[in-house]
Amino acid sequence: MVTRKNDIPPFQENAIYAHIVGWGMSVPEQVLTNHDLAAIVETSDEWIQARTGIKERRIAGENESTATLGLKAAQKALEVAELLPIELDLIIVATSTPENIFPSTASLIQDWLGAVRAGAFDLSAACSGFVYAVNMAAQSIRSGSIQSALVIGSETMSRVMDWQDRGTCILFGDGAGAVVLRASDVEGGVLSSVLRSDGSGWDLLGIPTVGSMDVHIPEASPNGHKMHKMHMNGGEVFKFATRVITESVTQALDLAGLEMSDVALIVPHQANARILHSAARSLKVEADIFMSNVDRYGNTSAASIPIALCEAIQQGRIQQDDNIVFVGFGGGLTWASMVVKWGTPEYAARRALYQQRREFSYFLARWRRRALQWSRRITETVSRIRPERGRMRRLRRKIDQSNLR
Ligand code: COA
Question: How large is the average pLDDT for residues 216-225?
């Protein structure tokens, strides 16, 4: 992670607030309806809608992945923020479905964007990941160590679904959302956050994969779950979710010195409409204070909050100076809430031709990648040939010496 840079002047010397200044989303075109699902597992549109509120979800195509969806969302967010990739200090991708265990999906996106001055890493906190990641980015900005950050929540849940398990495969979908955070001395932005975990619920929701516990690649995890497929104890997760939404939203508001009546909108993790109704009852608020688009996308894990945020902005549900709350919950168990005072401060120098410069950065990134990969290949080939020659020379000398004797 780059701290303050000498060659690019900081945007504002006394910046202490971290504002969300850009946002973008990207979902696959392919739609999977409840009726389509009824042809795969024993279920029905009525059951799914009644128990979850979901009507359809998006499924990634063959050429789509967590990184490609994340990249598109990121490009849109940079466009709204009027920021160049080179101005980014940090990229965090919150995901449970990364391209690989390592290298990180964030590094891939960093390269594709041409964000050559940014640090990049993936963050694993399941469906709470986006709120965790925004908190990490905001704290780095508020400490003065960085000026701007890109936070992406991106998932291809369809790739880790057990399509024979009707208790999980009806719930999840694919997609990505991203925000750009930037330092400003205008009061507002991220006001408070509460991050929590309860690892005693480790076994309630997860995707077993090859980890340091495995000495060989097993067929099933130690507790009998299918490898690389999601498993969940739906009932327990439901109870946990309703409890922690109420608890952590209240705690985050307390920390920000606000009350429920000061909140214009809650943008929650989109898991299940019934969870939100139940949380609304327990918070003693109308259910429509919760932004909900779970009917069209299902549960997109770490991507669900930024996708819902983008749609709330599109629908005009968030205005300047509104207090909004993000709340996420999921595997770990983890949960997190955050209060944000909305408002995109004006930055002094809006530079001309930003869109063209961004496009050029993506174009340049492609050629930079090719050039670097080629130069690595050439260096590797040359270094392989050289020691071979050296060895041959030594061998010949030995043979010559033994002939002399
Ligand atoms: N279609 C039809 N019937 C189904 C079904 C499906 N997709 N899934 C389960 N059922 C059946 C069960 O087999 C059970 O039948 P039985 O009574 O004959 O045994 C019945 O419906 C009730 O099952 P249950 O698991 O108690 O249903 P539920 O009301 O708890 O709903 C969930 C199941 C998964 C929708 C619900 O528990 C839930 O949403 N949990 C939270 C999940 C979540 O949000 N996870 C992500 C958090 S990040």
Answer: 72
pLDDT grade, residue 382 (50/70/90)? Answer: confident
Residue 310 appears among annotated catalytic residues: no
Measured in whole angstroms, how far is the alpha carbon of residue 282 from the centre of its chain?
29
Task: Give this prediction's pTM.
Answer: 0.88
Do the beta carbons of residue 298 and residue 33 sit within 8 Å?
no
Distances (CA, A) of 109 to 154, 300, 312, 319: 11, 19, 25, 30
> What is 59-111 written as a DSSP string?
---TT--HHHHHHHHHHHHHHHHT--GGG--EEEEE-SS-SSSSS-HHHHHHH
* Alpha-carbon gap, residue 45 to 201, rounded angstroms: 30
What angle, rounded to 10 degrees, do the helices at 129-142 and 304-314 form?
80
CB crowding 201-214: b at 16 or more within 10 Å, else e: beebbbbbeeeeee
For residues 11 and 347, is the Cβ–Cβ distance under 8 A?
Answer: yes
Give the pair of three-digit tokens for residue 258: 């606000």
Using most ligand atoms within 8 A of CB, pick from 51, 169, 327 the residue to mutate for ligand 1: 51
Q: 167 φ, ψ to 5°?
A: -75, -20
Query: What average pLDDT score do residues 51-58 get?
Result: 97
Calculate the alpha carbon distances from 121 to 74, 124, 326 in Å.
15, 10, 22
Distance between CA atoms of residues 390 and 377, nearest Å: 20
Contact by Cβ (8 Å): 92, 118 = no
pLDDT for 346 equals: 73
**What is the four-CA torsion angle of 207, 210, 215, 216, rounded to 10 degrees?**
100
The pairing of strands 148-156 and 90-94 is parallel
Centre of ligand 1 from the C-alpha of residue 234, in Å:
6
Cα(309) to ligand 1 centroid in Å equals 27
Query: How far, rounded to the nearest angstrom, does the alpha carbon of residue 217 sit from its chain's CA centroid?
Result: 27
